[in-house]
Amino acid sequence: MDLFEVLKRRYSVRAYKPDPIDDATLTKILEAINSAPSAGNLQAYEVIVVRDPERKRQLAKAAWDQTFIAQAPVVLVFVANPERNKRYGKRGAELYCLQDATIACAYAQLAAVALGLGSCWIGAFDDDAVREVVGIPPNMRPVAVLPIGVPADMPEPRERRSLSDLVHEEQLRK
Questions:
Q1: Tell me: the pLDDT tens digits for 79-111?
Q2: Which residues contact 3 (CB under 8 A, 6 or more apart)?
Q3: Distance CA 150, CA 20 (A)
Q4: Domain segments of the chain as ranges
Q5: 3-152 falls under which CATH superfamily?
Q6: Nearest 5 degrees, angle CA 96-CA 131-CA 80?
Protein backbone atom coordinates (compact mmCIF):
# COMPACT_ATOMS: atom_id res chain seq x y z
CA MET A 1 0.00 0.00 0.00
CA ASP A 2 1.46 3.39 -0.91
CA LEU A 3 1.78 6.19 1.62
CA PHE A 4 -1.18 8.20 0.39
CA GLU A 5 -3.45 5.16 0.59
CA VAL A 6 -2.22 4.54 4.14
CA LEU A 7 -3.03 8.16 5.04
CA LYS A 8 -6.54 7.83 3.59
CA ARG A 9 -7.23 4.57 5.43
CA ARG A 10 -6.04 5.65 8.88
CA TYR A 11 -8.86 6.19 11.35
CA SER A 12 -9.32 5.86 15.10
CA VAL A 13 -10.22 2.24 15.84
CA ARG A 14 -12.30 1.77 18.98
CA ALA A 15 -13.27 -1.89 18.53
CA TYR A 16 -10.80 -4.73 17.93
CA LYS A 17 -11.05 -8.37 16.93
CA PRO A 18 -9.29 -10.76 19.32
CA ASP A 19 -6.79 -11.79 16.60
CA PRO A 20 -3.22 -11.74 17.93
CA ILE A 21 -0.44 -9.69 16.37
CA ASP A 22 2.48 -11.91 15.47
CA ASP A 23 6.01 -10.98 16.49
CA ALA A 24 7.16 -10.25 12.91
CA THR A 25 4.33 -7.75 12.40
CA LEU A 26 4.96 -6.08 15.76
CA THR A 27 8.66 -5.87 14.92
CA LYS A 28 7.83 -4.01 11.70
CA ILE A 29 5.80 -1.48 13.69
CA LEU A 30 8.62 -1.09 16.21
CA GLU A 31 11.13 -0.62 13.37
CA ALA A 32 8.88 2.09 11.90
CA ILE A 33 8.90 3.80 15.30
CA ASN A 34 12.68 3.57 15.38
CA SER A 35 12.89 5.26 11.97
CA ALA A 36 10.90 8.32 13.08
CA PRO A 37 12.72 11.64 13.00
CA SER A 38 13.70 13.20 16.30
CA ALA A 39 15.53 16.27 17.54
CA GLY A 40 19.24 15.71 16.99
CA ASN A 41 18.43 12.03 16.29
CA LEU A 42 18.44 11.56 20.07
CA GLN A 43 15.14 9.64 20.13
CA ALA A 44 14.15 11.15 23.46
CA TYR A 45 11.37 8.67 24.14
CA GLU A 46 10.78 5.12 25.31
CA VAL A 47 8.15 2.65 24.08
CA ILE A 48 6.55 0.10 26.38
CA VAL A 49 4.87 -2.91 24.75
CA VAL A 50 1.92 -4.17 26.79
CA ARG A 51 0.30 -7.54 26.04
CA ASP A 52 -0.78 -8.70 29.50
CA PRO A 53 -4.62 -8.62 29.72
CA GLU A 54 -4.69 -7.32 33.30
CA ARG A 55 -2.18 -4.56 32.57
CA LYS A 56 -4.23 -3.56 29.47
CA ARG A 57 -7.36 -3.38 31.68
CA GLN A 58 -5.45 -1.16 34.10
CA LEU A 59 -4.39 1.11 31.22
CA ALA A 60 -8.01 1.31 30.05
CA LYS A 61 -9.06 2.31 33.57
CA ALA A 62 -6.21 4.88 33.73
CA ALA A 63 -7.52 6.28 30.43
CA TRP A 64 -10.80 7.15 32.10
CA ASP A 65 -12.45 3.82 31.36
CA GLN A 66 -11.86 3.70 27.62
CA THR A 67 -12.48 -0.05 27.76
CA PHE A 68 -11.71 -0.70 24.09
CA ILE A 69 -8.01 -0.27 24.94
CA ALA A 70 -8.09 -3.65 26.71
CA GLN A 71 -9.60 -5.32 23.59
CA ALA A 72 -6.49 -4.69 21.51
CA PRO A 73 -3.92 -7.50 21.52
CA VAL A 74 -1.06 -5.00 21.88
CA VAL A 75 -0.92 -1.60 23.52
CA LEU A 76 2.09 0.67 23.10
CA VAL A 77 2.81 3.36 25.66
CA PHE A 78 4.98 6.24 24.45
CA VAL A 79 7.02 7.99 27.12
CA ALA A 80 8.96 11.25 26.79
CA ASN A 81 12.48 10.95 28.17
CA PRO A 82 13.85 14.48 28.76
CA GLU A 83 17.24 13.15 29.91
CA ARG A 84 18.04 12.16 26.32
CA ASN A 85 17.63 15.79 25.17
CA LYS A 86 19.87 17.46 27.78
CA ARG A 87 22.01 19.08 25.12
CA TYR A 88 19.03 21.24 24.09
CA GLY A 89 18.46 22.60 27.59
CA LYS A 90 14.99 23.52 28.82
CA ARG A 91 13.38 23.48 25.36
CA GLY A 92 14.69 19.96 24.73
CA ALA A 93 13.51 18.71 28.10
CA GLU A 94 10.07 20.33 27.94
CA LEU A 95 9.23 20.22 24.24
CA TYR A 96 11.54 18.21 21.98
CA CYS A 97 11.10 14.96 23.91
CA LEU A 98 7.29 15.36 23.65
CA GLN A 99 7.56 16.02 19.93
CA ASP A 100 9.85 13.02 19.47
CA ALA A 101 7.39 10.73 21.27
CA THR A 102 4.41 12.02 19.30
CA ILE A 103 6.14 11.63 15.95
CA ALA A 104 7.12 8.07 16.90
CA CYS A 105 3.51 7.33 17.83
CA ALA A 106 2.28 8.70 14.50
CA TYR A 107 4.76 6.46 12.68
CA ALA A 108 3.37 3.48 14.62
CA GLN A 109 -0.15 4.39 13.56
CA LEU A 110 0.79 4.59 9.90
CA ALA A 111 2.80 1.36 10.03
CA ALA A 112 -0.18 -0.40 11.62
CA VAL A 113 -2.46 0.71 8.78
CA ALA A 114 0.08 -0.40 6.16
CA LEU A 115 0.06 -3.84 7.82
CA GLY A 116 -3.75 -4.12 7.82
CA LEU A 117 -4.16 -3.15 11.46
CA GLY A 118 -5.75 -0.22 13.24
CA SER A 119 -5.05 1.91 16.29
CA CYS A 120 -6.42 4.81 18.29
CA TRP A 121 -4.26 7.56 19.73
CA ILE A 122 -5.13 7.93 23.41
CA GLY A 123 -4.03 11.15 25.06
CA ALA A 124 -6.79 11.33 27.67
CA PHE A 125 -5.47 9.54 30.74
CA ASP A 126 -4.28 10.04 34.30
CA ASP A 127 -0.50 10.41 34.01
CA ASP A 128 0.19 9.04 37.48
CA ALA A 129 -2.04 6.00 36.93
CA VAL A 130 -0.31 5.18 33.63
CA ARG A 131 3.06 5.67 35.34
CA GLU A 132 2.07 3.16 37.99
CA VAL A 133 0.75 0.54 35.53
CA VAL A 134 3.87 0.44 33.33
CA GLY A 135 6.60 1.59 35.74
CA ILE A 136 7.42 5.04 34.37
CA PRO A 137 9.81 6.95 36.64
CA PRO A 138 8.91 10.49 37.82
CA ASN A 139 11.46 12.15 35.53
CA MET A 140 9.68 10.82 32.42
CA ARG A 141 6.22 11.62 31.09
CA PRO A 142 3.64 9.35 29.46
CA VAL A 143 2.58 10.97 26.19
CA ALA A 144 0.32 8.52 24.36
CA VAL A 145 -1.29 5.12 24.76
CA LEU A 146 -1.77 3.31 21.44
CA PRO A 147 -3.88 0.15 21.26
CA ILE A 148 -3.18 -1.79 18.05
CA GLY A 149 -5.12 -4.65 16.52
CA VAL A 150 -7.38 -5.87 13.73
CA PRO A 151 -10.31 -3.45 13.44
CA ALA A 152 -13.71 -4.93 14.29
CA ASP A 153 -15.51 -2.22 12.33
CA MET A 154 -14.94 0.11 9.39
CA PRO A 155 -16.66 3.46 9.92
CA GLU A 156 -17.16 6.00 7.19
CA PRO A 157 -14.35 8.56 6.93
CA ARG A 158 -14.95 11.69 8.97
CA GLU A 159 -15.14 15.06 7.35
CA ARG A 160 -11.97 17.09 7.68
CA ARG A 161 -11.36 20.84 7.54
CA SER A 162 -10.97 22.27 4.07
CA LEU A 163 -7.44 23.22 3.08
CA SER A 164 -8.61 26.82 2.61
CA ASP A 165 -9.60 26.88 6.30
CA LEU A 166 -6.54 24.97 7.54
CA VAL A 167 -3.66 26.38 5.49
CA HIS A 168 -2.48 29.98 5.72
CA GLU A 169 -0.07 31.63 3.29
CA GLU A 170 2.68 33.70 4.90
CA GLN A 171 0.68 34.68 8.04
CA LEU A 172 -2.13 33.31 10.16
CA ARG A 173 -5.43 34.81 9.04
CA LYS A 174 -7.88 35.74 11.75
A1: 999 999 999 999 999 999 999 999 999 999 999
A2: 110
A3: 8
A4: 3-152
A5: NADH Oxidase (3.40.109.10)
A6: 10
